[in-house]
Each structure stands twice: as structure tokens, then as C-alpha cells.
Amino acid sequence: MTNSTGRFITFEGGEGVGKSTQIHRLANVLRRRGHDVLVTREPGGSRGAEAVRHVLLSGAAEEFGVRMEAMLFAAARSDHIEEVIRPAVAEGTIVLCDRFMDSSRVYQGVTGNLEPRFIQNLERVAINGMVPDLTLVLDLPAASGLRRAKAREGKNAAPDRFEKEEVSTHEKRREAFIDLTRTEPDRCRLIDANQSEDAVALAILAAVEPVLDDNRTGEPAKGRKA
Ligand SMILES: Nc1ncnc2c1ncn2[C@@H]1O[C@H](COP(=O)(O)OP(=O)(O)O)[C@@H](O)[C@H]1O
Ligand SMILES: Cc1cn([C@H]2C[C@H](O)[C@@H](COP(=O)(O)OP(=O)(O)O)O2)c(=O)[nH]c1=O
């Protein structure tokens, strides 16, 4: 699916792979080229979703089980889409989102062991048709990502609900993200994040440019250079 005016681009991958660094770099490049860009993240990005974010990342919902957590992620996602993402894309904005539905497929579905049908149904209700035009999966060995995340947060910072899990669990997530790029090659691109920031940024731009130029709808994005 191509969103008819703006574009919806998501960034996925494990902990500390460089998503937020690269989103901001891409946003700067696109703004310099004259696009309207909105940077957002999950869980969060809208007032309702930010209220749920703390419940999830503090671990407060962990004792109630993975189904409960999955439903809270879905509730936050639904609010984020209807309040922020869908209206922005409809106005011609390029929305760059740090994590989205694939994080639920991987973290709650694959490593949370939830039944695929449950995750699929929840996803369908939550996203309500708002499939990303492009998903960039940043790939890095799990241990390197965790090291980067730890360095970013400072030695004494406590890892959050998901960071604290075993390296083997993070490696499973890495494999699951790679699998996604194989099962949905039209939407998902695998980006080698084990390179310099500049090299990763170039690879991302090369994946994004065709999506911006893609004029299947005949409607150029508002604010887009011809
Ligand atoms: N290509 C890279 N090489 C080395 N360090 C990086 C690279 N990209 C990002 N970093 C650093 O790694 C840490 C995690 O990056 P960040 O963008 O916050 O990741 P994420 O949003 O995926 O958790 C940050 O301190 C960032 O400066
Ligand atoms: C959006 C989403 C995130 N998560 C997890 C992944 C991260 O560990 C955490 C988000 O924390 P955040 O601090 O935003 O981490 P990161 O910089 O790694 O993106 O929530 C899920 O488990 N399911 C989801 O659907």
C-alpha cells in the first residue's frame, strides 16, 4: 500500500542499533530537501500512548503477562495512529517512526511466544489499514547493540523492561527481524547497522529515495519537490 499523500516510514531492530540516530539524520536531510517531516516513536507519540509508555517500559505491566503487554502496546499504537500518524500523512507529511507493528510481532509474538493469530488480530485492529510504506530494519549483533545502548545510557542506568533480557533472547529478536525482511521484501529493507553512522545513513537514503519518488497514486506528496 502507498499512502496517497505523505509517506509513513518505520525504523525497526534490536536495542541500540542506531534507530534514533538515523531517524534524526534522515529527518534533517529530508527537511533540507523541502519535505515536511514528523519524527515520532513507539510506544508513545501521542498523549494517550505516552501515558501507556511508562506502564510498559517500567515493567509495571510485566506481572500481568505478555497478552496484557501486547494489548497495551496495541492500544497505544491505535491512539498514536489516529491522533498523530494518519492525520499527518493525510496532510502530506513524511512520518518517521521509531518502532511500530514489527516490534510487537517480534518482541511479543516471537520472543513473547504469543500465538501468531492473536498478534495478527491485534495488529489489524490497532493499525486499521495504516501499513508503513517502508520499514527499515537496522541489523547488528545483539551484544553490540546492547553495548551501544549501555554506553548511551551511562554505566549506572538500569536497563528497561526489555533491555534487561538475556542476550540469547535479543539474538532471537535479531533473527526474527531478519526473517521479516525475507517474508515482506516489498515493504522491509535490511540495513547493515554494523558500519559508521555515515555509511548507515547512506544505505538508508538509498532505500528511502525510491519510496519518495514512487508516484503510483499520481498524487505527489505535498511539500515534495517535483
Ligand atoms: N553506526 C554507529 N556506530 C557506533 N555507534 C553508534 C552508531 N549509531 C549510533 N551509535 C551510538 O549508539 C548508541 C545507540 O544509538 P541510538 O540511535 O540511540 O539507538 P536506538 O534508537 O536503536 O536504541 C548511541 O549512543 C549512538 O550515539
Ligand atoms: C513498539 C514496541 C516496543 N517494544 C519494546 C522494544 C524496546 O525494548 C522498548 C522501547 O523502548 P525505547 O526506550 O523506546 O527503546 P529503543 O531505543 O530500543 O527503541 O519497547 C515492544 O516490546 N513492543 C512494541 O510493540
Automatic annotation (TrEMBL):
It comes from the Bacteria. InterPro entries: P-loop_NTPase (IPR027417), Thymidylate_kin-like_dom (IPR039430), Thymidylate_kin_CS (IPR018095), Thymidylate_kinase (IPR018094). GO terms for molecular function: dTMP kinase activity. Residues 11-201 form the Thymidylate kinase-like domain. It catalyses: dTMP + ATP = dTDP + ADP. Keywords: ATP-binding, Kinase, Nucleotide biosynthesis, Nucleotide-binding, Transferase. Its EC number is 2.7.4.9. ATP binds at residues 13-20. Phosphorylation of dTMP to form dTDP in both de novo and salvage pathways of dTTP synthesis. Belongs to the thymidylate kinase family. This is Thymidylate kinase.
